[in-house]
Amino acid sequence: MLSRTCLLARQSSKLPLVSITNRFSSDVAEVKASKNPLSTGQTGAAVLGGSLLATAVSKEMIVLDADVLAGAILFTCTYGLGKKIGPMVIDGLDKYTASIETTMSEGKQVQIAAYEEAIAEEKAAIESLQLAGDIFDIKRELVQIEIEAEYRRRIKTVHTEVKKRLDYQVELENTKKAFIRNHIVAWLEKEVIASISAEQEEANINQCIASLSLLAPSQ
Known about the structure:
By secondary structure, the chain is mainly α. It has six helices and no strands. The chain has helices spanning 2-14, 17-35, 44-58, 66-130, 132-195, 198-218.
């Protein structure tokens, strides 16, 4: 590559400077015309640059040796590669940057969601603490109701047991009274029967017969 560049430099040094300048100017004009036609007022910088370059070459301010040509070729290749590869590199970097931003944004959104969830939990905890007083009052009332129900149940149990005992006592007294009454009646009957003699029994029988005889004619 370097030997070919040196050969080109030697051949170009044999050509007249004016022809090189004219060819360079025509090539620049063709390239500019082929890309985008410039309107009046936009070609001044290009013409001025070309004139200055031609003047510098004609006055031998710029010597077209092998190093200059190699530098120009290197600059042209670099510029061409930049034009061709630059957009792809820029697109790749843009995509990579966008992916990084997306990843960071997703992580940020996840953290924001976690913080919002934690804030919601804290708010719920605060509300539950505010409602704790009402919950305690309700539980206290429920306990009072349970105590009252247990008290009434025990009162009913006591009433039932007392009634059973009273009924038992009444039944016992009635049984005692019936037993005493029957015993007294049996004793009196026995004593009366024992107190009646044979003569009194005969007299009573005779009296009963006389009473029956008196009642018979009246019928």
